[in-house]
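Figure 2 data, in text form.
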Amino acid sequence: MTSIPSISANDLSQAAFDKIVGERQPVVLRAFAGAWPSVKAAISGDEALCQYLARMSDKRAYEVLVAPPSARGLFFYEAKLQGFNFNRQNVPLCTFLDHLLALRNTLDAPTLYLQSTPTAEILPAFQAENPNTVLGAEVGPRAWIGNATRIATHYDVADNVAVVVAGRRRFTLFPPDQVSNLYVGPLDFTLAGQPVSLADPDAPDFERFPRFRQALDVARTAELDAGDAIYIPSPWWHSVAAMSQLNMLVNYWWRDYPTACGTPFNWLVHGLLSVRHLPKAERDAWRAMVDHYVFEDHGDPAAHIPVSARSVLGTMSSDLARHLKRWLAKEFSK
């Protein structure tokens, strides 16, 4: 493993952040949110943070994941991958925070996790009081609150800035080209939407997952304290361990292409339907097609066609994305 490079918030101009995103390599943003009142409250103590959050919450119930002590903080599959090792409960935020405070220093405590909840719903004043200075207000934060949790290695379909508000977190990242060494589980039966690696970076089983050793050799890691943030480009694989007894993170997902395009994962699923079952020679032929039309290995595949006649090979826009989706829908309906 190697350490993820970092930059101080003092050196993080908008131009510097845009350059980081353009290079598509993970970077730690030290003291990114050091001035946030939520971070200052967390540094003062768990009770101060909970009081700060309770002030802006309501009595509505939100989904919380609950895993038994035997899970050791890891939200994961059951042994045969037919179910999960956790259940879901709906509780008000203030009740949830009280449980977290009460469970500190408790041996064999269950693991509690409120995950990926838009702060606009659960903490309406949070975004205004804790502004992200490098992303527009249209990119809203999502809250992740719990005790000592571990999240299995997965990727996101959007770029991500994750900000540690409270506690300490360890991030372990794997480049996208390590997918064959990560032993990914089911694609359509997942813990929270994205496929996850079945190999545990905190307790690797090299007998069961021998190629995982190669993934660990090129992994990148960093530990973040309250106020630190990390930029994780899509689709870098990453696992996250919250190392304190009360932790909070907010993250920002955004994509710089039309929403109507959907996600690249949809294209992968289409490939499973249309290409994966073909004989190898035919798959190789279609690989050449994809390299030419999608990855543009030899330049713009429509360069020889007049702009007015390029149609689906034209510059991507929301209108073109919708046209392509209608075309696909028509083909799928046959």
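Caption note: The two ends are 50 Å apart (CA to CA).
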